[in-house]
Design goal:
The longest helix is centred in the first third of the chain and has 10 residues. It is extended, with a radius of gyration of 23 Å. By secondary structure, the protein is mainly beta.
């Protein structure tokens, strides 16, 4: 699926800024880029158009030998994280060219992808917002239990997809319709209205929508 141009960044945290009318606007501060283009893919050679971008510079000792050879082609340094962004048409960027926060403008609507905060193993009431059993009238020691999860003789097994206790969070999440309210190119910082997925210092991908 083709996407629009984007950039990798690091979620620094949340704060607020004030609008022209004095209203407080909650914003997420993201340190984004600069992200050099480390690979270019074309429809003729690879079957689709895409660019690969790098973020968070690394030393050679922290990068495998195959990765060192891969990054050497772009001659833009070595990186801890890379992401591929599919494009609708042939890439206009050149190998080694840096993408910065200036590809965006205040007022742009973007989508931000990141890993949600991990909550560990949780029961069905917290994980799926189940109501639980009654608090009284004969209910004893089963207030937060699962209850019935299937039938006995027929079909004789638990159906796939049944909502049960398990690991919650730490999943790739994309938040749509987020508005950029400020850009600070000198600090490589983007201010996005509202919240974005992930913990503090989490890796995020910001793309035009």
């Amino acid at each position: 699926m083709a996407e629009k141009l984007g950039i990798l960044g690091r979620k620094l945290g949340m704060t607020r800024i004030f609008g022209h009318d004095g209203t407080a606007i909650p914003v997420t501060v993201i340190e984004a880029g600069p992200c050099p283009v480390t690979q270019i893919k074309s429809e003729a050679k690879d079957g689709y158009n895409a660019i690969q971008i790098g973020f968070n510079k690394a030393k050679a000792k922290h990068v495998t030998k195959p990765q060192q050879g891969h990054f050497a082609k772009a001659d833009a340094g070595m990186f801890r994280q890379t992401r591929e962004i599919r494009l609708e048409g042939a890439p206009e960027q050149k190998l080694g060219e840096e993408l910065t926060v200036e590809i965006f403008s205040p007022g742009d609507v973007v989508k931000v992808t990141g890993k949600s905060v991990g909550k560990g193993y949780q029961g069905r009431m917290r994980r799926w917002n189940f109501a639980g059993a009654k608090d009284s009238h004969g209910t004893e020691k089963v207030h937060r239990n699962n209850g019935s999860i299937g039938n006995n003789t027929f079909p004789g097994h638990v159906f796939k997809g049944r909502k049960m206790a398990g690991h919650w969070g730490n999943e790739t999440v994309t938040e749509l319709g987020l508005k950029i309210v400020g850009i600070r190119p000198e600090d490589n910082v983007i201010l996005v209205k509202g919240t974005v997925p992930g913990p503090k210092n989490g890796l995020v991908l910001i793309r035009k929508q």
